[in-house]
Structure to design on (75 residues):
């Protein structure tokens, strides 16, 4: 997606909330703390989704190892 396409999309609720939040000055340290919080939030959300899919599809360690072995043999 190019920059013009991104710029023409409307902002979602999260983006609007973040713009309001950052409408006041923050220090570099505060910005780093907020960035870390957001990264941790999305990392946790992604891990929960991954765990759900693995459980739902009954994927085992052996399944992961088989895929890894196939990928290594094709290199």
């Amino acid at each position: 997606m190019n920059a013009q396409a991104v710029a023409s999309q409307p902002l979602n609720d999260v983006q609007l909330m973040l713009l309001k939040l950052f409408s006041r000055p923050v220090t570099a340290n505060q910005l780093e703390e907020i960035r870390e919080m957001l990264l941790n939030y999305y990392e946790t959300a992604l891990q929960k989704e991954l765990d759900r899919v693995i459980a739902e599809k009954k994927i085992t360690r052996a399944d992961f190892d088989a895929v890894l072995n196939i990928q290594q043999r094709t290199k």
